[in-house]
Design brief:
35% of the residues lie in helices and 23% in strands. It contains 20 helices and 26 strands. Helix 18 links the parallel strand 24 (514-519) and strand 25. The longest helix has 19 residues, at 402-420. The protein has 607 residues and is of the alpha/beta class. The strands form five sheets. It has an eight-stranded antiparallel sheet, with helices on one face. A six-stranded antiparallel sheet has the order 5-6-7-8-12-13. It is globular and about 75 Å long. It binds 2-deoxy-2-amino glucitol-6-phosphate. 2-deoxy-2-amino glucitol-6-phosphate (AGP) binds at residues 300-303, 347-349, 352, 355, 398-400, 483, 487, 603-604. 2-deoxy-2-amino glucitol-6-phosphate binds at residues 300-303, 347-349, 352, 355, 398-400, 483, 487, 603-604.
Length: 607
C-alpha cells in the first residue's frame, strides 16, 4: 500500500527520503515521487515503476534539508506519471503526499474547478493541495485544518509549503503516521520501518490529529483545535531492520527465520512446571478467563487462517465455542456482540483497515477485543489497548510466512491458559506446554531437510489448476498453502476441506492434476486416506504432507513430503512449512517477483 516518508533537519533531505522510500518498497507500490523545499520553491521528481528509477531521475537537486516523498499504489486513476505523488496546488507552492481515499473527491473537485482550479491528475489526492491553497492565509497549520474540515474519507498526509521551508504539516484520519524524533532532525513516516535507521523515539499520531513538525520536534493537536499531550514511545531495540541477511528474497529469509521467531514468541510465556502459560498483555486473571463463554477471532487472509487454527484449538482443548471470522464480512454485517465473548483481532501489520473496522464495531457494541499483532505500536495494537505481540520481527515479503506461525503460536499459548481454567489437568497442561516449547526445534528439524520440494515444484509449476485439501487443523493449513501459491506464482488453485471435495471440486480433476494433501498423524488421518484414493482414481497426482514414518501415506503419494511428528494441535506449525517452500520455489521456477507480487500490497489500509 502507499508509503509516506518526510524529513526535516540539518542534512540533505534527498538521500534520506530515497533511502526511506526503499524501506517502504515492501509495502507494494507502482510509482514513487519526491518533493524538496528550499527558498526558491518546490522541486519535484516522480517516476512510474520502482524507486530505483526515481533514484536515477532525481539528479541535480537543490540544496534542501526538508522534503516529502511517497510510494503510490494506484486506487483513483491509473499508474501514470501525472497521478504519481507529490501533488501540488496551482502556483506549485504547496506539495502533498497522501495515503488513503478522499470519498467526496467528486464534489470537492467540482467546487474547485468552478473556482477556476485546473487539475493535472485523475487522483483524489490532488484536491488536497488545491483545497489547502484556498484556505491558506499565511498560517500553514490553520490552512490544513480548515481544508480537512471539508474532506470525507481516510488520510495520512504530509504537506510542505514553499513559504515555510522550516516546517512540515502532517494529519491523520484512518491511515497511520508516526513521527520519529531524532537529534536535531525529525522524520515522519507511514511505517516505523522507515524510521528505525534514524531514531527509536517516536510519537504516534491518532485519528483526527494534526502535527506541526520542525527539525526540533513536533507539536500534536486535535484537528478541531486543542493541544494533545502525546507521550514519546520507544520502538523496541530488536525491532529489526529489513535486510536480506544473505538470502535472495525476504520470503526465503522469513521462512528460514521461523525457528527463531517462534522461540521469541514463546519466550517467558510458558510455565512448564505449572502446565500453564501467561500472556501478560492480556491482563486477564484465571477468574477473568473462567468468565469467557466464547472466543471469536477476526482477521484477513493469512491472519484469518491463523485465527481458524486458534479457534479450532480453543474448541478442541478448552471446550468452549470458538470461531474465526473474516474481518471484512464481520464488520459489515451488523454482528451480534456477545457480552461474555472474547474477541481477538489478528494482524501482522496492525494496520489492516477491515480488521480495524471490525474492532471498532466490537468496541461500539461494548465487546472486549484483544490484539494479536506483530508490529509494535501499530494502530490495531493501540486501538485494542490490550492483547499480545507475536514478536515475529519485521516481515517484509508481501506473502506472510513467519507471521502466520507466530500468530498460531500465540493463539496456542492462549489456548493453554484458557484450557487450564477448565478441564485440562496439570499433567495434560504439562504435556501441552512441552509440545509448544519443542515446536521451534521441530520447525528447525524440518527446515534442515525439507524433502523433495523440487519434485513437487515440477508437478505444480505448469498446472492449469491445483487443489489443496485437509481436514480439521489441516484445513486452515490447506487454505494458507493455496493462498501462498496464488500470491507468489499466480497458478490457479483453491483449497477445500477434504470431505467437501466430492461436493464439487472433484469435477476439476483430470489426469495429472496436482492435489496437495495435508495429512499429518491425528484424528483425521484415516478419513483423508479415503479422499486421497478418490482423487487418485480420477487421475490426480498427490503431493502428500505426512508425519515421518507414515509409510502408508508415503506409498500413496506421487511426491511424499514427511514432516516431524508433533501433537495434532501443533501440526499446522510444521505442515505449513512445505507449502511455504512450494510456493516460493514455484515462484522462482516461473520467474515471479517473489517479494512484491503483482496487484498486492503488504499492508491493506483501505477497505
Ligand atoms: C498474506 O500472505 C497476505 N499478504 C494477506 O492475506 C495478509 O495476511 C492480510 O492482508 C492481512 O494482513 P495483516 O496480517 O497485516 O492484517
Amino acid at each position: 500500500m502507499c508509503g509516506i516518508i518526510a524529513y526535516i533537519g540539518p542534512e540533505e533531505a534527498l538521500p534520506r527520503l530515497l533511502e526511506g522510500l526503499k524501506r517502504l518498497e515492501y509495502r507494494g507500490y507502482d510509482s514513487a515521487g519526491v518533493a524538496l523545499v528550499d527558498e526558491s520553491g518546490i522541486w519535484t521528481r516522480r517516476e512510474v515503476g520502482r524507486v530505483a528509477g526515481l533514484v536515477r531521475k532525481a539528479v541535480d537537486p537543490p540544496h534542501a534539508t526538508v522534503g516529502i516523498a511517497h510510494t503510490r499504489w494506484a486506487t483513483h486513476g491509473g499508474v501514470t506519471l501525472a497521478n504519481t505523488h507529490p501533488h501540488m496546488d496551482g502556483p506549485e507552492r504547496i506539495a502533498v503526499v497522501h495515503n488513503g481515499i478522499i470519498e467526496n473527491m467528486d464534489a470537492l473537485k467540482a467546487q474547485l474547478e468552478a473556482e477556476g482550479v485546473e487539475f493535472r491528475s485523475e487522483t483524489d489526492t490532488e484536491v488536497l493541495p488545491h483545497l489547502i491553497r484556498r484556505h491558506y492565509k499565511g498560517d500553514p497549520l490553520q490552512a490544513v485544518r480548515s481544508a480537512l474540515a471539508h474532506v470525507h474519507g481516510s488520510y495520512g498526509i504530509a504537506v510542505a509549503f514553499a513559504e515555510h521551508p522550516d516546517l512540515l504539516i502532517a494529519a491523520r484520519f484512518g491511515s497511520p503516521l508516526v513521527i520519529g524524533l531524532g537529534d536535531g532532525e525529525t522524520v515522519l513516516a507511514s511505517d516505523p520501518q522507515a524510521i528505525v535507521a534514524h531514531t527509536r523515539r517516536v510519537l504516534y499520531l491518532d485519528d483526527r490529529e494534526v502535527a506541526l513538525i520542525t527539525a526540533e520536534g513536533a507539536s500534536v493537536q486535535r484537528l478541531d483545535g486543542g493541544e494533545v499531550d502525546r507521550d514519546v514511545s520507544l520502538i523496541e531495540a530488536d525491532y529489526g531492520v529489513a535486510d536480506l541477511a544473505g538470502h535472495p528474497h525476504f520470503m526465503s529469509k522469513e521462512i528460514w527465520e521461523q525457528p527463531e521467531s517462534l522461540r521469541r514468541c514463546l519466550r517467558g510465556r510458558i510455565q512448564r512446571e505449572h502446565g500453564n502459560a501467561k500472556l501478560g498483555g492480556l491482563n486477564m486473571s484465571p477468574r477473568d478467563l473462567v468468565n469467557v463463554r466464547e472466543v471469536v477471532t477476526v482477521g484477513c487472509g493469512t491472519a484469518f487462517h491463523a485465527g481458524m487454527v486458534g479457534s479450532m484449538a480453543i474448541e478442541h482443548l478448552a471446550r468452549i465455542p470458538a470461531r474465526a471470522e473474516v474481518a471484512s464480512e464481520f464488520r459489515n454485517r451488523h454482528p451480534i456482540i456477545g457480552p461474555d465473548t472474547l474477541y481477538f483481532a489478528v494482524s501482522q501489520s496492525g494496520e489492516t483497515a477491515d480488521t480495524l473496522g471490525a474492532i471498532e464495531e466490537i468496541q461500539v457494541k461494548g465487546g472486549q477485543v484483544m490484539g494479536v499483532v506483530n508490529v509494535v505500536g501499530s494502530t490495531i495494537a493501540r486501538t485494542c489497548g490490550a492483547g499480545t505481540y507475536v514478536y515475529a520481527g519485521p516481515e517484509i515479503a508481501v506473502a506472510s510466512t513467519k507471521a502466520f506461525t507466530s500468530q498460531v503460536t500465540a493463539m496456542l499459548v492462549f489456548t493453554l491458559m484458557l484450557a487450564r481454567t477448565r478441564n485440562l489437568s496439570l499433567a495434560q497442561g504439562e504435556g501441552m506446554a512441552e509440545a509448544l516449547l519443542t515446536a521451534p526445534d521441530k520447525v528447525s528439524e524440518y527446515l534442515a531437510d525439507p524433502g523433495p520440494i523440487d519434485a513437487a515444484v515440477e508437478l505444480v509449476k505448469d498446472a492449469r489448476y491445483c487443489l489443496f485439501m485437509g481436514r480439521g487443523f489441516s484445513y486452515p493449513v490447506a487454505l494458507e498453502g493455496a493462498l501462498k501459491l496464488k500470491e507468489i506464482t499466480y497458478v490457479p488453485c483453491e483449497a477445500y476441506p477434504a470431505g467437501e471435495m466430492k461436493h464439487g471440486p472433484i469435477a476439476m480433476l483430470e489426469k495429472g492434476t496436482p492435489v496437495i494433501v495435508v495429512a499429518p498423524r491425528g484424528s483425521q488421518r484415516d478419513k483423508v486416506i479415503s479422499n486421497i484414493k478418490e482423487v487418485e482414481a480420477r487421475g490426480a497426482k498427490c503431493i502428500i504432507i505426512h508425519t515421518q514414518g507414515d509409510e502408508e501415506l508415503a506409498r500413496l503419494a506421487a511426491v511424499s513430503i514427511p514432516v516431524p511428528d508433533v501433537r495434532e494441535f501443533v501440526s499446522p506449525l510444521v505442515t505449513v512449512l512445505p507449502l511455504q517452500l512450494l510456493a516460493y520455489k514455484v515462484g522462482l521456477a516461473l520467474g515471479r517477483d517473489i517479494d512484491k507480487p503483482r496487484n498486492l500490497a503488504k499492508s491493506v489500509t483501505v477497505e
